[in-house]
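Lab notebook, bench 4. The sequencing result for the construct came back, and we need a structural model before the next group meeting so we can plan mutations. Quick request posted to the team channel:

Model the 3D structure of this chain.
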Amino acid sequence: MEEGLARGIFFRKEDGSVWIDLTADGLDQKLLLRGDGTSVYMTQDLGTAFRRFEENRLDEMIYVVGNEQNYHFQVLKLI
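Done. Here's the predicted structure in token form:
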């Protein structure tokens, strides 16, 4: 989160929550971290994906999920 904030990829709202604005990509603003510092589903998936890439030196990663997860993974892929 801190790197994303420092690079201007994420932004912090007045309540301390951390968001990403994906409206330029046809999506919404997405909550990444609650104002009280607790994680959301996306936070956990970002951390897991980052760790997998770092530890395993992957070229790509394929997720097999149901249609109800399409939006979530569109966001994850963009981030």
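The chain has one domain: 2-78.
Will bring this to the meeting.
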